[in-house]
Design the sequence.
């Protein structure tokens, strides 16, 4: 008996859009299009110049989690973009920050967003926060052959765990290893300096407003010592991208609020410099 269309659809049905894409159109995947054994050795070819995104910071606060990223992308010693956005909503209750090769990172972000939307449509419910974190890790692991060529993607993932009633934060390595972070974390070229600021400024039970101020100041410190990180730019009216996630969902902090916070940070640093 000839297989019906309905039977074929049922056989191929999956709650994972990534699995469906790998099976039906692997050429559309952002990674894994070239077999690993056909990739040139990293030392045998000239380094590929591609825009890279840099510093992302994230932290828990009294009502949930916050994630922020600067606006600069670099390509070698050149500023490739002053306007890039590196923090995105993954779904209603989670956000994703990207550091590394910008083009691949943006493709993985879009695929991850569709993955979560597809799961919700197929299953009729949101994927758990742990499930989201695991699926993102699998995507990062799929990019490992490209990472070994210098085209790495290292995301930062955060969300509100509705059953538990609090925000959670996850970091990754280039192999897709997933690590749950406590309190705060940072990734990217300026992360060492941002982490230093977070250690000094973060405290348990931060209010939402205080958490935004801590994030802006941590990025300011990173930009002060890392040329690949862009600080607040009052001339161009460029401010970090900041998302907060709580039990009501993920919301982007308006630029006018960030401008006010950034101006206060710059003024306090100016006063401190004059008094030094």
Sequence:
């Amino acid at each position: 008996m000839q297989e019906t269309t309905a039977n074929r659809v049922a056989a191929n049905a999956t709650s994972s859009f990534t699995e469906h894409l790998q099976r039906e159109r692997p050429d559309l995947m952002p990674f894994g299009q070239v077999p690993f054994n056909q990739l040139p050795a990293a030392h045998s070819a000239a380094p590929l110049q591609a825009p890279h995104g840099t510093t992302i910071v994230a932290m828990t606060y009294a009502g949930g989690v916050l994630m922020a990223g600067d606006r600069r992308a670099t390509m070698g010693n050149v500023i490739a973009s002053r306007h890039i956005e590196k923090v995105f909503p993954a779904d209603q209750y989670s956000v994703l920050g990207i550091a590394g090769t910008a083009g691949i990172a943006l493709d993985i972000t879009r695929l991850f967003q569709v993955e979560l939307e597809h799961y919700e449509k197929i299953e009729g419910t949101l994927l758990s926060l742990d499930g989201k974190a695991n699926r993102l890790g699998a995507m990062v692991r799929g990019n490992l052959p490209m990472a070994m060529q210098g085209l790495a993607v290292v995301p930062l993932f955060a969300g509100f765990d509705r059953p538990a009633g609090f925000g959670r934060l996850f970091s990754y390595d280039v192999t897709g290893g997933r690590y749950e972070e406590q309190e705060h974390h940072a990734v990217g070229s300026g992360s060492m300096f941002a982490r230093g600021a977070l250690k000094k400024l973060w405290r348990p039970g931060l209010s939402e407003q205080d958490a935004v101020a801590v994030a802006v100041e941590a990025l300011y410190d990173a930009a002060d010592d890392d040329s690949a990180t862009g600080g607040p730019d009052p001339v161009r009216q460029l401010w970090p991208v900041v998302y907060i996630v709580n039990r009501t969902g993920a919301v982007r902090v308006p630029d006018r609020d960030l401008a006010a916070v950034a101006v206060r940070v710059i003024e306090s640093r100016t006063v401190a410099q004059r008094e030094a």
About this structure: Residues 5-11 have pLDDT under 50 and may be disordered. The chain has one domain: 49-275.
